[in-house]
Amino acid sequence: MRLSTFLVSSLLLLPLLSVGPSFQLGVQAQGDCTGDIQPIVWNETVARHALVPHTGGYGDYASIADDRDKSQEMDWGGGGTNYDPQLHPEEYWMYNQPWPLPALEPLTTDHYTSMSIGNDSAGALRFNLSSQHRTTFCVNLQTVSDNVSSPASADIYLLTTNQYDMYLESYNSNHFYSWMGDFEEVLSDLSPEWRSFNPAGWNTYRDVHQYENRDEVTFSLSLDSPEVYNSLFDSGSYQDFYLVIDTWDNSHDRDAEPLGEVVVADVTVITEERNFILPPWTVPLAFFVMIGVVVALPFILNSRYMNAGAGGTTNDPSLETVPLLEQKPIGDSPPPKD
Fold this sequence. Notes:
Blueprint: H1 2-17, H2 21-27, E1 47-51, E2 111-117, E3 122-127, E4 133-145, E5 148-151, E6 154-160, H3 161-176, H4 178-186, H5 192-195, E7 210-214, E8 216-222, E9 228-231, E10 234-238, E11 241-246, E12 263-273, H6 282-306
Antiparallel strand pairs: 1-3, 2-12, 3-11, 4-5, 4-8, 4-12, 6-7, 6-11, 9-10
Helix pairs in contact: 3-4
């Protein structure tokens, strides 16, 4: 009986032990950042993107199409800043991408790259993550001055294609359309579960892959299936993933402030093939079974309790605890003596 009680208590406490700190550790699980590093074939396995404050919002279409003279002042009248080659090392093609973007092969190999992100800018690496592999991202941030490196704090986000488009709109709003930036700032202090209802806001993948004001981070990601975005106007579009290094003061309240210098990000991406993958429907099935067990347990315990003392009678006199008083019928009693 004691063993049954212990097992029942363990089943009841298991859901409580499976949430809280253990979930957070699963998101930021420290992985092995070493592997069989392969050369990057740009625009085939990985693509490089950038958001810079000196273009005008949607690409540099005005006067430097051939990237011949970027030392001139660039102010497109919408809040753009002057170009400084010391603070903006991004190359022209990084923030003027062809459309449509080239499709990438599923990521199944390990890669390393170092990327420089200018002040008040954002650098991104685009991947086509494979659902057959577990992907680990290792990011280390630093600044370099006089050949001496020191840790630097910035924001690291993982976004899908649709989320990156919202992030791009937010960047342009804050840099080139001041009235939109003010509107977004008013709605910035929202909890993650309500950010999807903010037309000017943006959120990260699964609402958890945002690491703000950090100098390094390691996290892993496993997909149940290829990521697809569905909406009322689109039957479904496959999503790429963007690893974003953010060095500007975005609309989040707890993000890092611009440092006024170039941030260098060392990024290592490690993939590991998954040998056993459960289909997505096993998750609701497991919860359904767990809820069914919790509902049935009180009835099982009550039945066992009610039947605990309902044993059969025994013929052993030594086990009788209450003496029995036998009485003869009145008609069988002898007549009284004179």
